[in-house]
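Protein modeling request. Please complete all fields; requests missing the sequence field cannot be processed.
Requester role: graduate student
Desired output: 3D structure, token encoding
Chains: 1
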Amino acid sequence: MWGMLAALAAAGQWWLARLGLSLSEVATFNGVVGACSVSLFGLSFLVWYRLCQNRLKEMLMYWETDTRKVMEVTQTLQQSQVERHNLSEQLRKLTTEFEHKVQDRTKELNVACEKLRAELNERKQAEKALAQQAQELGRSKDVLELHVQARTQELQKLQKRNESILNSAGEGIYGLDLQGRTTFVNPAAAKMTGWRVEEMIGKPESEVFCKASGESPVQGQSSNPGEQVFFRKDGSTFPVEYVRSPIMERERLVGAVVMFKDITERKRTHDALARKAAELARSNAELEQFAYVASHDLQEPLRKIQAFGDRLKAKLDSLGIQEGREFLERMQSAAARMQRLINDLLTFSRVISKSQPLVPVDLNQVTKEVLSDLEVRIEQTKAHIDVSHLPTLQADPMQMRQLLQNLIGNALKFQAPNSKPQIQIQAQSVRKPFNGAAAGGSEQEVCELSIKDNGIGFDEKYSETAVARAQ
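Delivered output (471 residues):
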């Protein structure tokens, strides 16, 4: 029984605690309300009823409030669950899409990665090739620099050489731009005009060298050599011969270069030669007149010699005398040659005014006649003359006779003391370039006549003078 009471006591305390009342409050409440005949755990039944009623009301109110809150929370929770479900679906879809996109992107990244690897490999190979090319370019650059230095040195040497040529040239040289202004002048041009080189640079050609003409100072074609009058700084003039040539760069006309030389001395020489030519023409005319008169004057005594020789020969024939006949024939032959010499002298006097036509000339016959004329001198010098067979040429008989007589006569005359002249005359046919044609062009067959002797000869330095006198 005591156990049951203890259990009831414990249950009462639990309910008091559930109702929110302590044992002190119950004691106080009992003093106010009063005791009842029926009590439970120290409280009257009425008190318990009221307390329970009040507490139940409050609990109902709390219950309703909590129920509403629970319902609201339940609704909120349901809405949250719906939203969560929707969000879960969206998240699932997004996750699925994201996974697909990730897979696609992964594939793209893999492809891009492969491409990148390939590009990296290519780039490494290209860098390697570039490194090799850089090394080769470095070596080529060194070699090129050496070539450039060598070429630059050559160009500098060439430029210095050209400048030296321009500066040392005896002719005047100056350059012009398209406007006709001087761009360079060599010292010879400055010396001939009396200017300093730096004074002439940049000035128009008409101000420094010559007066302006109607033609353009710079043309695209070279001009033929011509003559012009140039001015000096002091205003005096001098004649020049000049050539104007264009300066082209990449087929474009950029200027002109003019080369000139002072022909004052040549003009003076030309004038002097003209005067000498006039004097020579007058002298030749006088000589021609003298030769004509002298030849006519010589013919009269020669006719008498021939006439008396013919009479003497006829008398000897009538008397039958043979002694002296050979000398008489030689005299008549010499007179006949003298007659031909006089006629040739008349012909020679007309050579300067009228040339004679060429005729066949037998050199054997001409040589025989020349040796006959020189017979006395040949016997005196005891000369030995060897004459080969000579051809027949188209020539002037008188000139060929005079040529052979002069050469053979000189060979007999100019000998060392106590020596016997040895003379060899021969001819041969040779082929030489046609007169006026270059070597390797058309050729003609000519006769080369040579006369050799053992005479004293002459110094080689007088060869031109000797040939001029022979001509």
